[in-house]
Amino acid sequence: MSNHKFGRRELLLLSAASALLPQSAMSDDVIDLAWADLLPEGQTALPRSLQGIIEHDSAEQFGQQPVATGVRTDWNGKTVRMPGFIVPLELDGTGVTSFILVPYVGACVHVPPPPANQLVLVTTEKPYQSDGLFESVEVTGMFGTAALKTQLADIGYVISADKVAPY
Predict the structure, then answer these.
(1) pTM (predicted TM-score)
(2) Which residues form the signal peptide (predicted)?
(3) Which domains does the chain have, with CATH numbers?
(4) Among 1, 50, 113, 128, whose Cα sits 20 to 30 Å from the Cα of 57?
């Protein structure tokens, strides 16, 4: 696990995206999102890798991150709950404070990352004691769209997490 810190540009973009989310949007209503919900309206087909089919020897796996076909803004400023897997970016002691939530094990690590509209940057004030890359988690917090670039991948969404728990 690396102790990756965001660059100045990434932090500015994250701050700008967070500022667009109304602080009063927190409510008792939590929206459960699935990964397919993050695809643009009318797009129903997930990439094969997001359907649980990872063809390690295909040409697609040796390429770069696929181009996203857009993002959804339906849940900006809303409290959502999403399952996924952790790709850690920042640590505080032994806990993770910033990570990419990915739809399947190994995304961004063993194979090219999914499109930006299938990646969520999660930040949390309370470090989460992760058991590693193969741990599935459920994240609850304020959702928003973003256009972020990290060393691992472009990211289309952010969640400011109130809660990160094993799934």
Answers:
(1) 0.75
(2) 1-27
(3) 8-39+64-166 (2.40.50.870)
(4) 1
